[in-house]
Write a structure and sequence with these properties.
299 residues, alpha/beta, four-stranded parallel β-sheet, 12 helices
Length: 299
């Protein structure tokens, strides 16, 4: 218990409530147990999971001083509202995990292509013999990393969705790479301003003047009345053909922009450019939802 982060140590004297038993919830449980902290999992959709509670009323809320919730929980969820009214500190999984992270953290966000950029940048950094890991909204929560991977020499490249950025209290990235911004998640947000603001929260939390964004982000910021910091680097695709090999994975949108954002970050950190270029030559990436699948009758 003494090795817990000071910010939550006292709140872990009683069992921690974990909302949601998905990938992030299980990672939080594993993290807490590694520190000897008791927890109770709440998931109204859980089936045949021993020890998981499906209800969270006032009696349950008053048993916890700390709640860690999965990204699927909206800020207006009645369980979170009740927990806050009963005095609990409520943290999203990513925010919670950042308290245990000792190294640098680069936040990657955007509507499209952020998984590619996250994995590509981590792979390029490892080519430079750096202890880099790709984590976050790619199926590997930051909470899941063992203590041995949380050294001060490590660098976490974190894909962070708007859901994970909405209500940050502790996470402070050293850099934010924001790929693009398009209409999405309007089942969760009332309008595009709310959606943009959730992502812009990462900009507010920046620890260093290192913000690199795509053209769409700058355009939407102006349209919605947001002022990007003076140090913001806005990436355009004007030099894509000059810098990107025609055989590369990064020849089409949104991957062109991903490469150019990675290149700008790379140069701002004064890393050897050849290492980034060599990684790009062999990088394949995951199947992407905007990639061509087939052509049928000219469509």
């Amino acid at each position: 218990m003494d090795t817990l982060p000071e910010a939550i140590r006292r709140r872990c004297e009683r069992p921690v409530a974990v909302f949601g038993l998905g990938v992030s919830g299980r990672a939080v449980v594993s993290c807490l147990k590694s520190y000897g902290v008791a927890c109770v999992v709440y998931d109204e959709g859980a089936k045949d999971e021993f020890g998981v509670r499906r209800i969270f009323f006032e009696a349950e809320a008053r048993q916890h001083d700390l709640v860690v919730y999965s990204p699927g929980f909206t800020q207006s969820h009645p369980w979170l509202d009740l927990a806050r009214r009963c005095g609990a500190l409520c943290l999203g999984e990513m925010d919670f995990a950042s308290l245990f992270w000792h190294g640098m953290l680069v936040a990657v966000t955007g509507t499209n292509g952020k998984t590619t950029l996250t994995e590509f940048l981590a792979a390029a950094l490892r080519r430079c013999a750096m202890e880099a890991v790709a984590v976050g909204n790619i199926g590997r929560p930051l909470s899941f990393l063992p203590e041995s991977a949380r050294s001060r020499a490590a660098l976490a490249v974190c894909e962070i969705s708007s859901f994970q950025a909405e209500d940050l209290k502790f996470l402070r990235p050293q850099a934010v790479l924001w790929t693009n911004f398009e209409e999405d998640h309007l089942d969760r947000y009332a309008n595009m301003r709310e959606y943009f603001d959730a992502k812009f929260n990462l900009v507010r939390r920046l620890r260093r003047p290192r913000l690199i964004v795509g053209e769409q982000v700058a355009q939407w910021a102006q349209k919605l009345g947001y002022e990007l910091p003076a140090y913001t680097k806005v990436i355009t695709r004007q030099r894509a053909q000059e810098w990107i090999s025609p055989k590369s994975y990064f020849t089409t949108y949104p991957q062109q922009e991903n490469y150019l954002i990675a290149r700008e970050y790379w140069q701002s950190e004064q890393l050897p450019l050849r290492m980034l270029e060599k990684t790009a030559e062999n990088f394949t990436g995951r199947k992407h939802r905007l990639a061509p699948v087939a052509e049928i009758d000219g469509v």
